[in-house]
Design a protein that fits this description.
The structure is a single chain. 41% of the residues lie in helices and 19% in strands. A hairpin with a 7-residue loop joins strand 7 and strand 8. The radius of gyration is 19 Å and the shape is globular. The relative contact order is 0.17. It contains 8 helices and 12 strands. The termini are far apart. By secondary structure, it is of the alpha/beta class.
């Protein structure tokens, strides 16, 4: 007769309950505080935002250390149907519950556990309702800022383009985690950048072609990271870049967009200019 399983210590059970039930709510409100009290600079993102507003799906790739503000960006700036792949660990469940508070879907799985099931969930969401997809190609355990093959396989299966995204801010703390997670502070200036290049993976791509695509995505993601970090370090300017400013109302959560010259513009203007 098998002995009953040993119960986890009460302290650990309480800690896990707080993490998974109180943690998502606190994180949600923290993200909202950061997003609504900060000035945003959107760099090379007009075409990507236009796709979101039209409901045209793509695969958004961003590093694991930049996920904090991603739900806010997608929800506030136009994301209507977005599904995010998160790990089936406690961290992943926490993330999924935060995403739910933002009204975003999640698929539980990763390269280390439940990856096939998560992939199928994402494919089903895309096939049924045209969901855009978001994935952290180096998650959930690294190596840091190294693209794994999952995002390439997803692009091959769906035919959707991979669009790389990143952001950085004037006031951040880099945590001592495996990915040096970027904790963004409230009352800040945040620069979000998108790749103008869409990377497609042919449906008949062999292993060598998929590896070429993987390297291409990785280089582009690293380039975006480097640009926004260099911008706040004063090493580069926005000269020659396409950009605009976004301020989110603290009370209503609505966005106000202005061009570099101070002229306001709207979603209709964005869609007209980005066919």
């Amino acid at each position: 007769m098998n002995k009953p399983g040993k119960k986890r210590p009460l302290k650990k059970r309480i800690r896990d309950w707080l993490l998974l039930n109180v943690g998502p709510v606190l994180t949600y409100y923290y993200i909202q505080l950061v997003g609504r009290t900060s000035k945003w600079i959107a760099i090379n993102n007009e075409k990507n935002l236009a796709l979101l507003h039209r409901g045209h799906p793509y695969i958004a790739a961003l590093w694991h250390n930049r996920v904090l503000m991603a739900p806010f960006i997608f929800k506030v700036e136009g994301g209507k149907k977005v599904v995010v792949m998160v790990s089936s660990s406690k961290e992943g469940i926490l993330t999924a519950r935060i995403l739910k508070l933002f009204g975003l879907e999640s698929a539980l799985g990763s390269s280390t556990r439940g990856g096939k099931e998560a992939m199928q969930q994402m494919l089903s969401a895309h096939a049924d309702e045209g969901f855009a997809m978001t994935i952290t190609p180096d998650g959930p355990l690294g190596p840091n800022e190294v693209v794994k093959m999952g995002v390439i396989a997803l692009a091959k299966e769906t035919g959707l383009p991979i669009v790389s995204l990143s952001y950085y801010a004037k006031k951040v703390t880099r945590l001592k985690s495996w990915d040096r997670f970027v904790l963004v502070w409230p009352f800040n200036t945040i620069a979000g950048i998108g790749s103008a290049e869409r990377i497609y993976v042919p449906a008949d791509a062999d292993d060598a072609q998929m590896e070429q695509c993987r390297i291409k995505v990785e280089k582009e993601m690293l380039r975006l990271n480097r640009f926004v970090e260099d911008y706040f370090a004063g090493k580069v300017t926005l000269e020659g870049q396409s950009y605009f400013y976004s301020q989110v109302s603290f009370f209503s959560g609505k966005t106000n967009w202005t061009r570099p010259n101070g002229e306001p513009f709207t979603k209709d203007d964005l869609l007209k200019e980005n066919h």
